[in-house]
Every structure is written in C-alpha cells, then in structure tokens.
Design goal:
With about 270 residues, the chain is an alpha/beta fold. It has a single domain, classed as Alpha/Beta hydrolase fold, catalytic domain (Rossmann fold), CATH 3.40.50.1820. The chain has helices spanning about 1-10, 20-25, 45-50, 75-90, 100-115, 130-145, 150-160, 170-180, 180-195, 215-230, 245-250, 250-260; strands at about 15, 30-35, 55-60, 95-100, 120-125, 205-210, 235-240, 270. The chain has an eight-stranded mixed β-sheet, with helices on both faces. Helix 4 (about 75-90) crosses helix 5 and helix 6 packs antiparallel against helix 9. The N and C termini lie far apart (about 45 Å). This is Alpha/beta hydrolase. It holds the Pfam family Abhydrolase_6. Keywords: Hydrolase.
C-alpha cells in the first residue's frame, strides 16, 4: 500500500529539475500549485528563477495539463497527493509551498491536514468563504458557458483579461480546449463551497497571504480571514491588481517570495491587511 502511494505521488509531479541527485538532496524544496483552468506551465518563469537555489516542483492538478484525461476532480485528493509526495521525498528538507487561486485553496488544505510538513507557505488569492447561491447556479449554467471555452475568440479574451504573456498563449489555449466539462463542474463547485478548516491555525509554517486590490470583496475578506486565523500569518494587498498577480506583476511577485523566505522586509508596494 505504501509503495502504491509513493508511485501515485511521484506520478503526480512534473519533475522540473534535478541536475545532480546527490548535490540537491540538501536543497530546500519549492512546490508551486497552479490555478484552475491552467496547469504547471504558469510557473515556468518562477521555476527558472528559483531553480539554482531550490529543487522546484510544479504538479499538474487532477484534470489539468498532463492529467487532462482523468475523469474526476477532488480538491481533497489533490491535497492528499501532495502530502504523500512530501512525506516520501522531502527527507527532512525545508519545504516551501506556493499556491495561486485553486492551488492556494489546496495549499490551505495541506497546511490544515498536516501541520508539520510545510515550513513556509505563500497563499495567493484563496477563496475560503463559501458562496452557496453561486454553488447551486453552476450546474445549470455550465452547459451554456462550457462551449465558449473551445472558441478561439473567447480564449483570447480571457487571456487578455488575465494579462497572460504572449509566449504562454498556446499553453492556455490548449488547456482550455482540453478541460473536460465534469472536471470543470466539480472544480467550480468545490472552489465555491470551500471554507477555511478549523485546524488551519495549528500549522507550524510561516505564512504569507496576498490578494489583489481589485479583486472582489469576498476575496479580500477571505485573505483577512486566513491571516487572522493563524498566529504566524501576515496578509498583504497588491495595489492596482485583480486576480492576476502572478502574471501581471511577475517581478514584484518574485521579489516578494525571496523577501518572505529570507525573512526580510517585503516590497514597499504591498499594503498590509489590517
């Protein structure tokens, strides 16, 4: 059973870099969790920046990227896969977990399920306040909106809204066209139904929470709720940005990660959540 778990967890991860297995065994591990509707490619630039200092890993979550043919999505199963992989592979090294949107919710879930395995976590734009009315609207509305995800004009419109750089547009288009309806439905429903676990405050990690200044009010309230729920969490708003921090302000995002990991003052552009 343990062997099966290890094999499943290993298969879950797209192994980004390993130059010398012996020399990297003492490097900290940095794990990036992507948002819904994209996949590990969204972290290409960050992996390239951090790969000399950390062993960087970017998994494709269930139903996304290399796993697009899988038939069902489960946020809790994603969290369990990550936990299993860390237990098998970390070997007491420092583990840094970075999540965006759906990936940030899963990061919260990992921290809540296993309080001891993450040392530093960066939670970007995580919804942790349920939207029950929207949850019940997803199922009847999806058949009407799902066909748009296959249309080039709609894909281009969404890419522009997300401020995606031109060199990743082909990744985003392919992702959109391969995303299955049942995966999308379950993903939306779990995303809208997710609430902050009571055990989150027990996590041992230092935690940084961010939200875009232009994101919806419920996202702002979610960021404050996460920050207030943990004794070692700090929360910051990113000025003049919506749900696009990792794409639109890449340099600021990277500098923020470096500063937080090194326990330095964060970039002055960020505004602390009060």
């Amino acid at each position: 059973m343990k062997k099966q778990s290890a094999q499943k967890a290993a298969a879950f991860f797209l192994y980004i870099r390993m130059v010398d297995k012996l020399s990297t065994m003492d490097k900290p591990i940095m794990i990036f969790l992507h948002g819904g509707g994209v996949s590990s490619w969204m972290w290409q630039e960050q992996v390239e920046i951090f790969k000399n200092t950390y062993d960087c890993f970017a998994p494709d979550l269930i139903g996304h990227g290399t796993r697009s043919k899988e038939k069902s999505f489960s946020m809790s199963e994603c969290a369990r896969e990550i936990i299993s992989w860390i237990k098998e592979q970390a070997h007491d090294r420092k583990v840094i977990l970075i999540g965006f949107s759906l990936g940030a919710q899963i990061a919260v879930d990992v921290l809540s399920r296993e309080p001891d395995i993450i040392d530093i976590a960066i939670i970007n734009s995580a919804l942790v306040l349920p939207l029950p009315w929207l949850y019940f609207m997803v199922r009847p509305l999806l058949p009407l909106t799902y066909p748009l995800l296959k249309k080039d004009w709609f894909i281009q419109l969404q890419a522009e809204k997300m401020e995606l750089p031109r060199h990743v547009l082909h990744h985003y288009a392919a992702e959109s066209k391969h995303l299955q309806k049942n995966i999308l439905l379950t993903m939306f429903q779990e995303n809208l139904h997710y609430k902050l676990p009571d055990t989150f405050g027990q996590a041992k990690a230092r935690i940084l929470v961010t939200v875009g200044e232009k994101e919806k009010g419920i996202m702002q309230r979610s960021a404050k709720k996460i920050t207030d729920a943990h004794p070692q969490a700090v929360g910051f708003t990113v000025p003049n940005i919506g749900h696009t921090f990792t794409f639109e302000k890449k340099e600021l995002f990277t500098e923020m990660i470096k500063s937080f990991i090194e326990a330095r003052a964060l970039p002055v552009e960020l505004k602390e959540i009060r």
